[in-house]
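Reviewers asked in the last cycle whether our approach scales beyond single polypeptides. To address this, we selected a multi-component target totalling 590 residues and predicted its structure end to end. The input consisted of the following lines:
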Amino acid sequence: MASLALEAPKPVSPTWRNFREALRRHPTAVAGGLVLLVMILVAILAPWLGTVDPEAVAPVKRLRGPSAQFWFGSDMMGRDVYSRVLYGARVSLTVGIAVALLSTLVGLAIGLTTGFVRWLDAVVMRVMDGLMSIPPVLLAIALMALTHASMQNVIVAITLAEAPRVVRLVRSLVLTLRDEPYVMAAVAAGTRLPRILWRHILPNIVAPLLVQATYVCASAMITEAILSFIGAGTPPNIPSWGNIMAEARSMFQIAGYLILFPGICLSLTVLAVNLLGDGLRDALDPRLARRM
Amino acid sequence: MAVVAFVVFLLLYLTPGDPAAILAGDAATSEDIRRIREALGLDDPFLQRFGHWLWRLLHGDLGISIFTNLPVTQLIGQRIEPTLSLTVCTLVLSVLVAVPLGVLAAARAGSWVDRAVMAFSVAGFSVPVFVLAYVLILVFSIELDWLPVQGYAPISEGWWQWARHLVLPSIALGTVYIALIARMTRASMLDVLAQDYVRTAQAKGLAPGAVLTHHALKNAAVPIATVVGIGVALLIGGAIVTETVFALPGIGRLTVDAILRRDYPIIQGVVLIFSAAYVLINLAVDLSYMFFDPRIRY
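The resulting structure, written as structure tokens, was:
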């Protein structure tokens, strides 16, 4: 998301010019983008940032507070929390970005189809209503409880829980756009459906979809942490922020830092994504910017 | 609701993992496993199983817990008080805090009050409930020693103890919800405050407070009520985590234990009960529109 926002191509259309002006007006969004960029770099460069093997146990040195040797302290098995937190960034970011991409694709595919193929609409939307009437976190928990713990399953479970909202958004946008004069004109002129979708519909839903994707990303990272925290997420041998905090659950009274550091990282990353999303929304939809 | 029931059943049916094998334990022979599968009806055809399950569901029977052999309804019934206390307290607290915050932010749009409320709202969305919960425990229970660290006191043991144990969980759980409602209240109020009749009321010389509450807030109420209803989804997901952190013996704890033991009937039952509650609350919200806006008729 960050690279998209910050490395915008040379502004040619007025949209991109407005976009850059809006970014200037929203320093918080830029800050969010920068923090996110740093987090992504940290995740990629984790092995070279003074970390040790995040799985290496050293029972003699367990539960040491933060010090020069253990920057973020060590956990109950003597593992270096700093290394674990840095490697944990990989999990959270992968899950967040993968879910955002997947649910956008799923939402786009189903939303576009149901928006134009009317007989499918009734059936598909009832299924979506069913999925949406189960609170998303609960749905993800139920799904995870029934498969074995792996990162792919976490991503699929959260995508299933998040995608119905994206479907709703795309469908409602398509339904409004379908009645626009220029779309009707294209239909009347005999333009094929794929071309109508590509030339007329897609460009008009990219902006709201992008904004929605950032929110999905933020919420997916929180859901991943919640799943791991209650023992239904990424397998315990992968150091995700949720797992680190889950393991620290029983000893937070004596070693609060075990929860503090991953907690701060998680909150900061989610905050960054949310700020970026808010900035994008204001930049891409000036009408909303006034209100929210 | 029928769709929900079907989806829930399908989800649990399609997923791998054999409860009979887990129940039988490591030392079981395949003969043992086969016997347990038969006793549980796990080998029946799909539609027959769904039919059975639905029939019992309509009679208020959510099945028997595989692990404890107790009816799921009984297990959920035992655990409902802490969960209900937590969610209702959080709901009331959140609305009481969030709506005035939102109104204040809208009335002073652009001021530092507005900025502070909006900053709080973005931050509230970003801090996961259990991180906040631990920070609250560390500060108010361990450092300051004002409130109990964990645990639950039933209402029957006195209101005071009950309330003391719920203060921190409610704040932790409520923060996201407050952020959501405050944001929507502000947006909705800004819309209404731009209307002509508000200007007329102000021009008539009505007290600013009266204009805000009587003219503006009542007309801004429908979107606020909607978001209160939708936000219950956050509340339910968060309650499971909050109960785990604060060791409240509620439905959330039951769920987490059931996940670890793959106790399918309990998971099915909890998902159904929570979803039903969610749907019913949103139905009640829909009906409340008539009260807020008499133009809406069903």
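The mean pLDDT of chain B is 76. We regard this as preliminary and will revisit it once experimental data from Aim 1 are available.
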